[in-house]
Amino acid sequence: MTEPLLDVSDLDVRYGEAQALFNVSLDVAPGAVVAVLGPNGAGKSSLAGAICGRVRPAGGRIRLAGRDVTGWPAHRMSGQGLAYVPEERAIFPHLSVLENLRVRLRYAVARGERTAALERAFETFPILADRRRQQAGTLSGGEQQMLSLARVLAAPPRLLVADEMSLGLAPRLVDLVFDALTRARGEGVAVLLVEQYVERALEFADQAVILRRGRVVWHGAARDAASELVAGYLGESP
Amino acid sequence: MQGYVLAGLVLGSIYAISALGLVLTYSSSRVINFAHGATAYTVAVFFHWLNQVQGWSIPASAAISLLVFSPLLGLALWGILFRHLTHSPPDVRFLATVGLWVALPAGVQLAFPFSQGQILQPQGFATVPVAIYHLSALGVSVNANQVAVLIGGAVVVVGLSALLRATPVGLATRATVDSPRTAAISGINTTMVTAGSWMVGTALAGLAGILLAPILGLSNGEFTLLLVASFAAAVVGRLTSLPLTFLGAMAIGLIQGIAVDFLPSHGVLSTGFRPSVPFIVMLGCLLLYPGLRRERFEVDRRAGARAREVAPPPPLRGWRAAIGPLAVAVALFSVPLWLSTFWVGVVSQGAALAILFLTFTIVTGEGGMLSLCQATLAGIGALTTASLATHSPLFGWLVPNPFSSATGWPIGLAVLAGALVAVPIGLLVASLSLRLGDVYLALATLAFALLIEQLVFARPEFDNFGAGISLGRPIFLGINFNDTSTFFLLLAAIFCVLAVLTVNLRRATTGLVLASMRSSEQAAATIGVRIVRSKLLTFGVSSFIAGLGGALFAITIGRASPDSFEVLIGIVWLAIVASFGTRSVLAALIAGLLFAVVPQLFSEHLPTSWAMVPTLLFGLGAIRLAVNPRGSLFDIQHSVRVLRLRRARRSPTFEGQAPA
Amino acid sequence: MSDPLLHAHEIAVSFGGVGALAGVDLTVPARSIVGLVGPNGAGKTTLFGVLSGLLSPRSGRVELAGADVTRASPQRRARLGLARTFQRLELFDELTVRDHLVVARRIRERRDRSLLRDLVGLGRRPSPGEDEAVDALLDLLDLGKFANQPVPLVPLGTGRIVELARALATEPRVVLLDEPTSGLDVHETERVATALRAARADRGVAFVLVEHDVELVLQLCDDITVLDFGRVIAHGPPDEIRASADVQAAYLGTAPAQKTPR
Predict the structure, then answer these.
(1) Which residues of B fall within a CB distance of 8 Å from A83?
(2) Which of B167, B185, B190 to mutate to test the interface with A (most CBs of A within 10 A)?
(3) How many CB atoms neighbour CB B497 within 10 A?
(4) Which of B475, B551, B604, C115 keeps 20 to 30 A from C85, CA to CA?
(5) What predicted TM-score, i.e. pTM, was given to this entire model?
């Protein structure tokens, strides 16, 4: 058995009084896709935030490629080959599209390969190439999300943590997001997918974890998750 | 005309350099540095010391001051203070930087004793005698210091733009300023970026200071004017935009320079116009930029702020609660029994100041508002009282004296009138800036205070060659208050009455309403609190107390002099009150007594070069709020109560505190 | 049938293109609990903002007990009988639990205007009937044992109930509840639900409940409105909502093509 790329064990997260996660454990194998599902407020975003170093865990352990990274700040996690697309659009609204990409590439790619990576990003999302001089804040919601994703995929990470990427997007744009994710997966990127489009997520994922009120209530193969979910969202008797 | 344009460009360049530093530090850490002018002063004094006292050459002094000393100073201040303030509540952020504003110049004057006296010819970048160049083509003369300013301004603007636009560090900085969270997940070490921006920002302040010194003089007071003009420019740039800030600074400088050509050479306009430009620009921006109204200074309540909140142990109830205040009152009233007449006089000043300091207890402690013009309101109260009591003109207008007394109004009535006059003036400032939120209120009150200082306090009828207006003491109810002890008892009684009223207010519905507003304006509004009305009411009451306290202080020292109510003295007052706690009337009393007594003790028992030590301590006390937001008095009371609780917990009757 | 207490008519809000509302209606009859649910980003928070007065709609009307309050400030709505709670606790950290109710009640009685009375020390005395009313409310919501504690010491779930109590102390007609159980564990959620039921039975107040926990909404509410992409996609009693295919689709994400955002 191969060692998991990401290994989360007994993770607790609390904000002052409120505890958002209780003893959450999961792992992601290299190149695998794991979907994290659950009703809103179940702790999905707290899980993503803790893995990416944005939220300091109150307990438990996070290992990335065998290395204990618990409590590391976000910029160091980024240096370990982890990329994070948070729930809100991860862009710099007052910088140009090009600068947005450059900020990321400067830290993720060796000097000589940056131009190539930039070209790749524009190839994947041609719409951004047309707008490279435009201020990112003036892009439409969908384009901002493209940029958010392009920043990450221009330099393929080892692990991508994607939090509610299709939030508020039109279905056509959701397709685009999943196309990009599929391509990344083909290049060996492991993905931890927090998603509210459950069916899309489950089609795409190998494994699924269901959270409810901060605890893992179910985990298993993605194809078995759907029936479990209807009960979880809409009460016991659908 | 060309000469005035040149003067304006020079001023504008200095403002711009300083304001760009202010914006840089604010936008990377969300802390407005009220000590920015004090930082500029510090570097300018250091430069002067290297060059004049140590005899270093100008280039060497400049290089060490700007490239070594300033960045280290910025790094140190950031590491010790500003780093901790980013997530502090707004009042702590404000009061701690005000503390630094008080402490830094005092520390500098202790470390470099030559700066305690007046520095006749501050050293700039130009060698003395300063060369003067005649540009016949333009019809102006320009001296070497002005050339240095223009070159310095151009270098900073070009250099800063190049740094930010074209270098990786600049890109990382702009990214961090734009969105710290996204910057962090992109791999940027935002802590390093913030530290770097404080180093650069401090160096810019230092450069502005060195350039300003030979033009306006090297004194803490002149640097306050620089600070306010920089604030106004920064507000033009909404505290974030560097280009707009630059334009704002140049505009303020040019208006101030060119206006000299059009204004009468003497009178109110000639002295008052220049300081009023930053105030008008600031107010204009506050009213014109709708975006500023929405700007909230976010405290991340979710992550930590609530967890850090320490609940006070329950206060004593019943007769035990009266023991402490009674003991304090007895001690206060018995002062004439155990002190010499001289010291009773000193303590009287303290008691008068304690009355005045209750204005901070009301406006900041109860109302949660950040005002820097309370000393100015006190001065207005004092000068009005003095003018009425001595029957001297107010703004050239002789207020009728309907009373039989030959000298003027009876002094009791004059005091009351002085206090009442302060109210509408305070309300006017507050109503203009209240809706804009905490920090803008602080900025507007500061600009207003400086305006009054230049426009009103500097008038000859008030200033009277620095002597002020002398004032007698009252005789009423057949008691002659010319006796030092008797007058002290009167002050002590007034303080006690006001303290009781303040405590009454706090414990009544008004106090509950204000407490709810301080915690959450949003929630207070949803239970029906009319926020603006409540704040104006509080500001009005605090203005009244400021006016009253100012008048009584003037009577105590025998003269109403504008010197006693300068902005820079006001911030020391605020710092000392805050360091004991703005929520406590006892803190106001202690602060007042210490402010009067400690300097006197120092001057009697210690060498004069130590004179700045008390001010330094007062400032450091306010800086400590960053760690200990409620003031040291609260800390002491808290420890006492915790001890009491521990003792009670051991006894079997204790019913338990909070469930864990 | 009498007029609804709170009525939002054809509300439209737009900003930046995402999460806006288009032609949303919401009706809250007296003594009812109306649930407002939907996936993340569906517009629940926006509608809540319009009802509570933090946001102005681009078009549409909000009526409170027959009065048009579309542009009224939160303060004014409070005085007309609209109270609310916050998802992130907005408690008055310096006050005890009891004082939260006292201050809300006194503002209702306009005692915040009696400055002179307060100055001379009479302002500390409770109004006639105040102690009894406050105690009754504390008992009703089972807050008695926390009464004299400063709020930073109470657990999060209790804090939510304190917000509810503070809202009820203003003697409102309608209370808006913004995700009152988010961040709570199962036990605390049950306490909040119990408090809500008790408040409705005893006070005859109507509630609007915005909530992520659909199960809780199905249990508590008489009437549920489901939002998705800024539109009402379902509306009716709990059983209907539970059975609705549209609702399941919205939650499971088989987004049909016509649901493009505006």
Answers:
(1) 185
(2) B185
(3) 11
(4) C115
(5) 0.85
